[in-house]
Amino acid sequence: MQLVISIAQIRAGGGVHKAIKSLMANRLLSRESQAYEGYRLTYTGYDVLALKALTARGVVTAIGRKIGVGKESDIYTAQTPEGEEVVLKLHRLGRTSFRAVKKKRDYLKSKSAGNWLYLSRLAAMREYAFMRALYAQRFPVPTPKDQNRHVVVMSLVPGYPMYQVRAGEMGHPEQVLDACMNIAIDLARHGLVHCDLNEFNLIVDEHENVTLIDFPQMISTSHHNAEEMFDRDIHGIAKFFRMKQRFPVDYDQLPKLPAIVSEVEALRLSAGLAQAASGAGTAADGGDEAAEDGDLAAPMFLGAGDDAEDEEIALDSQGLGLGFDDAAAGADADGQERAAVPVRLDLEVKASGFTDEDEDLLRQAIAQAREGAEGEDGDDGAEDGDDGEVE
């Protein structure tokens, strides 16, 4: 109790017992008396903290109806101060088959504060980071609005989940199939594999535009399982159109990850060489002018000095994905048009502070939660108000 008083910065006897009793009555706190004497924050309590912060920021002013429930999240509509209807995604890792997953918690031992609330926050941070990166590169994803704790705020995407579209209802299934395949291809060109691309994560509107709405398990194309995961995504989409939409698919013509990666590497090498040639030409021209003025040119063995742009070009020619973006298309020195070099979004998200350790921790947690849910059908799942902490 003294710790509660200290953290809350209230006077002893200043109604702390009454406040805790009220919080417990509303299932915002849960009392623990087995391993230790104390209180735990519940998912409902975590919801309140996140929504209070988002309201204080002026992101949302009202919460609407629940429009989706998944194994790992709840989806609600909300309203902004401007009256725009947006979506709130509340991550709830560990809710399903809670006890089953607790038995397999080795992946939490490296985190002293490891609990499901922390993992849910990690999932929200990751999703928001990827959403911002994809949106910036004009991928068909919701508009990222904000994120706090385990809650992500995004724009409401018009349309229906693809799995709800019955055979014969698509006017141009070949266009929709191409759009789905292009999402997987474009992700790969930007260094990413979705790992769970299917009809449940894609929205189709009345104009048959396709939007990607969920990406919890994306990995880098440099991951050792990248090709296997890419093939699974591609064949899963192909199977949906062949089986559910009754649309013929030529499996021999499906895209292959090695070919996509090779193409991008060739573009990156070509762009790096073109930039280097252009820089060399400029340096030569400058040297001629300097010689005419009687100045001495810098020795050729010296580097580019403090020129950050030259340094980025050199790094990018080594395949590190720095210094180029999708707007980098242009003409080579000989006047030939050059294709754009995609940004390595896997590196960009990692640079934002999402570490490899966080990535592995979250991926294992999601896998264990899904395994537990399938094994017990949610019989031991924690309710919304139950504590989300792993002891």
TrEMBL record:
* Family according to the record: Belongs to the protein kinase superfamily. RIO-type Ser/Thr kinase family.
> What organism is recorded for this protein?
Phaeomonas parva
Where in the sequence does UniProt note compositional bias of the Acidic residues kind? 374-391
Native organism taxonomy: Eukaryota, Sar, Stramenopiles, Ochrophyta, Pinguiophyceae
EC number(s): the record gives 2.7.11.1
Question: What is catalyzed by this enzyme?
Answer: L-threonyl-[protein] + ATP = O-phospho-L-threonyl-[protein] + ADP + H(+); L-seryl-[protein] + ATP = O-phospho-L-seryl-[protein] + ADP + H(+)
User: Keyword Transcription: yes or no?
Assistant: no
Q: What's in the keyword line of the UniProt record? A: ATP-binding, Kinase, Magnesium, Metal-binding, Nucleotide-binding, Serine/threonine-protein kinase, Transferase
Region named Disordered: 365-391
Name of the protein this chain belongs to: non-specific serine/threonine protein kinase
A molecular function (GO) held by this record is: protein serine/threonine kinase activity
- Gene Ontology CC: cytosol; nucleus; preribosome, small subunit precursor
Question: Which co-factors does it depend on?
Answer: Mg(2+)
The record's annotation in CDD domains points to: RIO2_C
